[in-house]
Amino acid sequence: AASDVYKRQTAGLAILASSNIGFTDVQTLLTQLMSYFRVITNPNAVFATADTIEDGQIISEEVKSRLNELVDDTLALSRA
After folding, report:
1. How many helices and strands (H and E) does the chain possess?
2. Any idea what DSSP says for residue 60?
3. Furthest-apart CA pair in the chain: how many Å?
4. Three-state DSSP class for residue 5
């Protein structure tokens, strides 16, 4: 049915940049874009810099932990 297209969707944001400058601006724009598509966005994004990734793998245990927490929180939000 057409109403199935508009089921509530939920997303968590992980934002990667080369430096810490501008993370909040990017999060704001992404949240607004997701809202346009009727996606509820977890307000607790994970910000990471490029130096936390090496050979395509996350090398920072702190970032891994925050990503796991983001996933858990986003899943809980989607069930609420």
Report:
1. 2, 6
2. -
3. 46
4. helix
In tens, the pLDDT along 36-78 reads 999 999 999 999 999 999 999 999 999 999 999 999 999 999 9
**7-39: pLDDT as tens digits:** 679 999 999 888 777 777 888 999 999 999 999
Residue 42 structure tokens: 């977890």
**H helix or E strand, kind and range, residue 57:** strand 57-58
Q: What is the 3-state secondary structure (H, E, C) of 4-63?
A: HHHCCEEECCEEEECCCCCHHHHHHHHHHHHHHCCEEECCCCEEEEHHHEECCEECCHHH
Global pTM value: 0.80
Please tell me whether residue 16 adopts helix, strand or coil conformation: strand
Residue whose token pair is 């796991």? 68
Q: Round to whole Å and give the CA distance between 52 and 32.
A: 27
